[in-house]
Write a structure and sequence with these properties.
The complex is a heterodimer of chains A (330) and B (427).
Chain A lengths: L25 E2 L9 H19 L3 E4 L4 H14 L8 E5 L5 H14 L3 E5 H6 L16 H12 L3 E3 L8 H4 L4 E4 L27 E4 L7 H10 L11 E8 L2 E4 L12 E8 L10 E3 L5 H9 L5 H5 L9 H7 L4
Parallel strand pairs in A: 2-3, 2-5, 3-4, 5-7
Antiparallel strand pairs in A: 6-7, 8-9, 8-10, 10-11
Chain B lengths: L12 E8 L6 H11 L5 H13 L15 H6 L6 E6 L3 E7 L6 H9 L4 E7 L6 H12 L4 E7 L8 H17 L5 E5 L23 H7 L12 E3 L2 E3 L11 E5 L4 E3 L3 E5 L3 E10 L2 E3 L1 E3 L3 E6 L10 E4 L5 E12 L10 E6 L2 E14 L6 E2 L9 E14 L6 H4 E5 L6 E7 L5
Parallel strand pairs in B: 1-3, 1-4, 4-5, 5-6
Antiparallel strand pairs in B: 2-3, 7-16, 8-9, 9-15, 10-14, 11-12, 11-16, 12-13, 12-15, 17-21, 17-23, 18-19, 18-22, 19-20, 19-21, 22-23
Classes of the chains: A alpha/beta (330), B alpha+beta (427).
Chain lengths: 330, 427
């Protein structure tokens, strides 16, 4: 079955036989057992996902194939099995994704037996909704247009995303249930107070909320959870040799979109990606970490923030994430 | 972060804390110091604030810049209520709810405090216990924060005087005793110089107590969650109706407090019907028992009509069920409380309509005096009796935060306009 769907005839039929892991396992727990921080974070996220399912009319889970959304999928399994997910997966495809990530995305949706909807920026460009200066320009910020169009088309009142507050300072001030007005915009100074874990999910027609169940997780928490749950992630997260060249403080991966300029020398070195986004602006870091345990060690001792190291588009100004969020970005 | 390859964070506990103090008390410097000395600041963050410090003509790095705000805040001179920050040591993971001191302190502190295990109240050693310190202590007690640290900061400006610390802690203790606060930890420090934050420094050798970091890492938090009273609000009913799970009917939710085991006799509220726990289902397998705050799916022996918003409790330990509730409301909205209107009240997984039957008083949070009022405005705290359309299964907030708390939503704007805490009927 072909999962990549760009026309409007979408939903994948769930495959039958949703499985529960280790059904017969009986886990003994003693009262004096202390829940670990991962247990507490997991339970908080599951609680959030269930609130979305219970109170929102038409939610979707934004799935990119990246590590944070992979964690979201496992959390959704924890929240809803043995039932199906009460929402489809939605991917906003920039057309500049790493091919192995797209392959992973499609396979994962199939394995889970959940619906995957793909909306493509290519379509937004064809329709004239997105105008690029050049074909190879970073498409990261333009995702907002396709995302907002998809929200309107699918009449979504909630989009679940994998953003974390430790990523960036605009995120640090965002709510778990983050209200967006009818233009999809985030107004940082007009956010709803969020107390205890009682979430206000109410919106008027045309408005929507973004929900970030792993707001309180850090990059290290995500990798520890991937290790604990034995989650598969795309190979480009692990160390591999790649042609890259150095520009400013970062490494740029050579691809059909990104070529060294005059005077820039490409070299073939061991790298891995810490995030997987738009190929034209996602930079790898030099690393020998070939498996999850080594990534955890590396993350625990790393000296550069995740976005600082890997996203050219966040470095353009101190407030670039904040500006993009106000325009409707995740 | 910390340069130790052997670090394993996977079995650490999570501590959430809030810092209360105004900008002048050195709150940003303290948070910056905690992050810096615990090696939680990244190179790119450090180089960014170093540049800014030098641009502003400062010789040393201004650690308070780490918590500097958004462009919108800088441009408009406003401060957005709560920012969350994260750091970890090999012992614990920490979440800081960083709330600005000046504007709308009540709203901000109440929001940040609602999820905190611990509050750090900052006092400027030169100024001593101020009105605002009392206000912070009052809000900490009102919100039932289990642990309180008083950080007597700027000790470098009072020659690290022991007498200053003695005077401040005595004065604070007297006031705190009136609020029923005990077990307060007093720590003299200089966040600027790093004395007694993470490192002991050399200037406070007379002080034999713990550093702030030692307190944060070691204060016991296992008892912060109520493990006595089993309360399980049903978030969702799971009926997959697949071939494999044809007759499966599971109640999904999080154990908000207490613990539950297979075979326990349970009562469903508000219906009052009884059954027994048949299974505790999780994605990872069946449990023989589970504790707060685990999210699980429960099945019961009998076929009862249970839906979202109902609450499962143990039959021998039941909550109060009432349509009339006494509450403390913290009003959060610019639009004042209109006692004639109906509001929505969200309590655990249940949303009900509610109206005001009377406003008992407003608390002057500086003097703790009660004032007779006919409305509550933004940042006001008052005791209000509410009528709810359907009976709520609830506990007193001070006994059980999860079933004693609620939010008030304005149905017209959909905004969250108040935070509420249920209190005993007879006080």
């Amino acid at each position: 079955m072909d999962i990549l769907i760009n026309d409007k005839q979408d939903f994948i039929t769930p495959v039958p036989g949703i499985m529960m892991k280790n059904e017969q396992v009986i886990i003994k727990r003693r009262t004096e057992d202390q829940l670990s921080h991962l247990d507490v974070l997991e339970s908080e996220s599951v609680h959030i996902l269930r609130e979305v399912a219970a109170e929102c009319v038409n939610p979707a889970l934004l799935f990119s194939g990246g590590k944070d959304s992979i964690v979201l999928l496992r959390l959704a399994e924890k929240a809803f099995r043995p039932g199906p997910f009460p929402f489809p997966l939605l991917h906003i495809d920039t057309g500049h994704n790493f091919p192995e990530v797209i392959e992973f995305r499609d396979r994962k949706a199939k394995e889970l037996g959940e619906r995957l909807i793909v909306r493509s920026m290519e379509d937004s460009i064809k329709q004239g909704r997105v105008v690029l200066r050049s074909e190879n320009q970073s498409r990261n910020s333009f995702q907002s247009v396709t995302l907002l169009d998809s929200i309107a088309e699918l009449e979504l009142d909630a989009c679940i995303g994998g953003a974390r507050r430790d990523e960036e300072k605009a995120r640090a001030k965002e709510r778990i249930f983050s209200f967006r007005d009818e233009f999809g915009q985030w107004d940082p100074k007009n956010q709803r107070p969020e107390l205890w874990d009682i979430y206000n999910t109410r919106v008027h027609k045309g408005e929507n909320i973004r929900v970030f169940p792993i707001s309180n997780w850090t990059e290290l928490d995500v990798w520890e959870y991937i290790a604990r749950e034995k989650l598969e992630v795309p190979h480009i997260y692990f160390a591999h040799t790649r042609d890259v060249y150095r520009r400013e403080n970062g490494l740029l991966p050579v691809s059909h979109l990104v070529q060294p300029k005059d005077g820039e020398q490409s070299e073939n070195i061991m790298v891995r990606f810490r995030t997987v986004g738009d190929m034209s602006c996602t930079c790898p870091v030099e690393s020998e970490a070939a498996n999850v345990e080594e990534i955890i060690t590396e993350t625990a001792i790393t000296h550069i923030t995740e976005r600082g190291a890997t996203r050219m588009d966040d470095q353009t100004s101190d407030a670039s994430m904040e500006l993009r969020k106000k325009e409707g970005y995740f | 972060m910390a340069g130790n390859n052997k670090i394993s964070f996977s079995d650490t506990e999570l501590l959430r804390f809030i810092t209360a103090g105004s900008v002048d008390d050195g709150k940003s410097t303290l948070i910056g110091r905690l992050l810096y000395d615990s090696k939680s600041i990244f190179e790119d963050q450090l180089s960014s604030i170093t540049n800014t410090s030098h641009k502003r003509g400062m010789k040393d790095v201004d650690l308070s810049l780490l918590t500097d705000g958004l462009q919108a805040e800088r441009e408009q001179g406003i401060t957005i209520d709560v920012a969350y920050r994260y750091f970890a040591t090999p012992k614990r993971k920490f979440i800081i709810a960083d709330t600005p001191g000046h504007e709308q302190y009540t709203r901000n502190m109440v929001t940040g405090a609602s999820t905190a295990n611990l509050a750090i109240i900052l006092i400027d050693a030169r100024k001593g216990v101020l009105t605002q310190s009392r206000r912070h202590a009052y809000l900490a007690s009102l919100m039932g924060i289990p642990h309180l640290v008083v950080a007597i900061n700027k000790m470098d400006l009072v020659d690290y005087s022991r007498d200053v610390v003695k005077k401040i802690s005595q004065e604070f203790s007297e006031f705190a005793a009136k609020l029923g606060l005990d077990n307060i930890v007093y720590i003299p420090m200089s966040a600027l110089n790093g004395d007694m934050v993470v490192e002991r420094g050399e200037n406070l050798s007379w002080y034999k107590g713990s550093t702030l970091m030692e307190v944060l890492e070691n204060i016991p938090i296992d008892n912060d969650i109520n493990l006595e009273d089993f309360r399980f609000p049903v978030q969702l009913v799971c009926r997959p109706k697949t071939k494999e799970f044809h007759d499966f009917r599971g109640y999904m939710g999080r154990i908000e407090s207490g613990q539950v085991a297979v075979g326990d006799k349970v009562t469903v509220f508000p219906s009052g019907l009884n059954s027994r726990i048949k299974e505790i289902v999780t994605y990872d397998g069946f449990l023989d028992y589970a504790i707060a705050p685990q999210s699980v799916t429960l099945t019961i022996e009998d076929h009862l009509d249970i839906s979202r918003g109902d609450m499962l409790v143990k039959t021998e330990n039941v909550p109060r069920v009432s349509k009339k509730i006494n509450t403390i409301l913290c009003w959060l909205s610019e639009t004042a409380l209109d006692p004639k209107r109906k509001y929505l009240l969200k309590h655990s997984a249940r949303i009900v309509k509610a109206g005001v039957s009377k406003i008992d008083y407003r608390v002057d949070i500086n003097t703790l005096n009660h004032e007779i009022v006919d409305t509550l405005k933004m940042n006001d705290i008052g005791r209000v009796e509410l009528n709810v359309q359907q009976p709520l299964a609830c506990d007193d907030y001070q006994k059980n935060h999860a079933t004693g708390s609620f939010i008030v939503i304005d149905e017209a704007s959909n905004n969250t306009v108040a935070a509420g805490m249920i209190c005993p009927a007879n006080t």
